[in-house]
């Protein structure tokens, strides 16, 4: 063997060099990554996958689509709504996973160890400094091991518990975002539905009118060629016809996409044709009424707006984040136990169990404790200020929505009156045309004026319906009940109908904001004279004017003397639902109403009208 030893060494060096070159080549190829655009096959595959979802079959449209059915289809098939549902599902899955983080670690392991020679060793005599000269071993060349270890860090458990609470609040935030999307979708459906109704009504009238205008233009061109009339008169007539036709084409452009927009909101595939359930022609008496007072809507909005509830849940998350930051500054306690097995034949006990505890603490982290606490508190204050600023914006949105609804109600009434007048004017022109007193141009212009007035009336009515829905959205009212027994279209349509019919009673039954801000006080009524003196004593103490500073904050100084605090029950509170329903709109918004004497109601919090919470879904 000694004869071949020199010839074997170069070969080993070459093998090691070859291995190094291969490893270097693999490493270099792994580091050279270049951008790779999508191929045509990948694009086609993506397109097929997306279209299979977008073009998925839906429940067929059996007849004309009403507004409630359009809303039900939007809730069930709209992709934005389905995205929010998937976000809620992902948040729930994340919560389920975070619960496992609170469990201790239970790790099982098994292994095999082998070597090509004995693991021997010598020992050194420390007294003489000499080796013993005997090689010994205490390990088999081949052995098997198995372990089952239990580890639990109490500090990690606390951190994981707070993280799980944060994830539970993220689930509620996802639900509030879904509520906000549903409210916005139903508002858009309401507006698009009425615009589509206006388009269905007027596009059928525009086409024959355009044909009459084209025929009149041909006649005018013939008169100009024959020089029967003066050239200036003929050209003015043609210009009037062209202006009228251009006006009709502008109207067509505004209306032609309304139905497609409604279909997109309903989740229908592009190009699907459907018919609308045509309601009767609107008149000035068709103004939707809002009987709930603006004060109750403000209170309901502050209690139920998705944005405010989301910020409240963010405040919880920030508070838990502060606790997590402070918890990490504490020492960690590890509890551990384990079962072990080793097939080493030299061991006295091949199976054994061990257990113990360990405390570890990064003492230097205490130096950052004040800054960590200050930063966490600053985050909590930021969330609080953001929620307070949002509350001011919510109050402003409710007021602005009510003002816009009132103005659009008046505008719609005027447009309805104008449309009625233009209809009668057109009838007069038609009657005059039959007896030869008016030409075609006057009749056509009268018909166009009537058509424009009808369109303006219907579009303003669509804006009025949008303003009506904006009041609901600004108040944070859910257009559907909290629980829906089924997700089929018939059940959803009935749920939408019930929710839209009862939202004012739900929102209007909330106590006013000023009543919630006044702290509950004991009664100030004097006891009757026939009662025993022991019953008068507590009443005399209650008669001290403790509520005067509160009354000074709620009324003007000139009215402060006219205010008499009194205790009433919820049944005695002025309910907005008792307002007359014959008026087009009854809201307590007029600035002049603020000059009337204001009563301060001291209602205990437990007696307030219940408010539905959006989280109970």
UniProtKB/TrEMBL annotation:
Keywords: Cell outer membrane, Coiled coil, Membrane, Transmembrane, Transmembrane beta strand. Residues 114-126, 585-595 have a biased composition (Polar residues). Residues 527-546 have a biased composition (Basic and acidic residues). Residues 114-140, 522-599 are annotated as: Disordered. It is found in: Cell outer membrane. Residues 199-261 form a coiled coil. The keyword Transmembrane applies. It comes from the Bacteria. This is TolC family protein. InterPro entries: TolC-like. Residues 574-584 have a biased composition (Low complexity). The keyword Membrane applies.
């Amino acid at each position: 063997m000694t004869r071949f030893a020199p010839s074997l060494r170069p070969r080993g060096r070459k093998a090691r060099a070859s291995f190094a070159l291969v490893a270097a080549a693999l490493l270099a190829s792994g580091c050279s990554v270049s951008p790779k655009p999508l191929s045509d096959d990948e694009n086609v595959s993506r397109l097929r996958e997306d279209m299979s979802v977008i073009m998925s079959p839906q429940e067929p449209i059996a007849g004309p689509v009403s507004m409630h059915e359009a809303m039900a289809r939007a809730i069930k098939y709209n992709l934005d709504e389905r995205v929010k549902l998937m976000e809620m599902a992902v948040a729930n899955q994340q919560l389920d996973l975070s619960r496992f983080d609170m469990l201790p670690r239970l790790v099982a392991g098994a292994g095999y160890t082998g070597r090509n020679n004995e693991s021997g060793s010598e020992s050194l005599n420390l007294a003489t400094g000499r080796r013993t000269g005997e090689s010994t071993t205490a390990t088999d060349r081949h052995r098997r091991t198995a372990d089952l270890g239990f580890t639990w860090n109490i500090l990690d458990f606390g951190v994981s518990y707070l993280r799980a609470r944060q994830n539970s609040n993220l689930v509620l935030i996802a639900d509030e975002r879904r509520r906000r999307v549903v409210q916005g979708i139903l508002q858009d459906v309401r507006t698009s539905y009425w615009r589509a109704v206006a388009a269905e009504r007027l596009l059928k009238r525009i086409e024959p009118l355009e044909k009459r205008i084209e025929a009149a233009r041909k006649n005018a061109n013939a008169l100009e060629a024959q020089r029967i009339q003066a050239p200036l008169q003929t050209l003015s007539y043609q210009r009037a016809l062209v202006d009228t036709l251009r006006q009709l084409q502008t109207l067509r452009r505004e209306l032609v996409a309304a139905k497609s927009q409604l279909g997109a909101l309903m989740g229908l595939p592009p190009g699907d044709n459907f018919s609308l359930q045509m309601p009767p022609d609107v008149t000035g008496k068709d103004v939707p009424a809002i009987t709930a007072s603006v004060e109750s809507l403000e209170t309901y909005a502050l209690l139920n707006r998705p944005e405010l509830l989301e910020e409240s849940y963010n405040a919880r998350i920030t508070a838990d984040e502060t606790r997590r930051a402070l918890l990490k500054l504490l020492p960690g306690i590890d509890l551990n136990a384990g079962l072990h097995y080793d097939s080493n034949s030299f061991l006295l006990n091949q199976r054994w169990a061990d257990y113990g505890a360990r405390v570890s603490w990064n003492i230097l982290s205490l130096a950052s404790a004040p800054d960590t606490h200050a930063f966490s508190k600053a985050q909590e204050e930021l969330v609080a200020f953001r929620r307070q600023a949002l509350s001011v914006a919510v109050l402003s949105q409710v007021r602005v929505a009510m003002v816009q609804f009132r103005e659009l109600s008046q505008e719609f009434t005027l447009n309805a009156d104008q449309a009625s007048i233009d209809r009668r004017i057109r009838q007069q022109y038609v009657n005059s045309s039959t007896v030869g007193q008016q030409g075609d141009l006057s009749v056509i212009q009268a018909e166009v004026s009537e058509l424009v007035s009808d369109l303006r009336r219907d579009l303003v009515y669509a804006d009025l319906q949008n303003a009506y829905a904006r009041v609901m959205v600004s108040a944070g009212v859910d257009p559907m009940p909290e629980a829906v027994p089924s997700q089929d279209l018939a059940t959803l349509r009935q749920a939408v109908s019930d929710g839209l019919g009862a939202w004012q009673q739900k929102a209007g039954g909330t106590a006013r904001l000023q009543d919630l801000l006044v702290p509950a006080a004991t009664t100030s009524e004097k006891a009757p004279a026939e009662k025993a003196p022991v019953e008068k004593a507590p009443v005399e103490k209650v008669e001290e004017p403790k509520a005067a500073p509160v009354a000074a904050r709620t009324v003007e100084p000139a009215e402060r003397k006219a205010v008499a605090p009194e205790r009433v029950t919820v049944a005695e509170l002025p309910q907005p639902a008792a307002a007359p329903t014959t008026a087009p709109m009854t809201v307590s918004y007029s600035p002049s109403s603020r000059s009337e004497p204001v009563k301060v109601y001291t209602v205990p919090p437990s007696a307030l009208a219940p408010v539905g919470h959006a989280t109970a879904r």
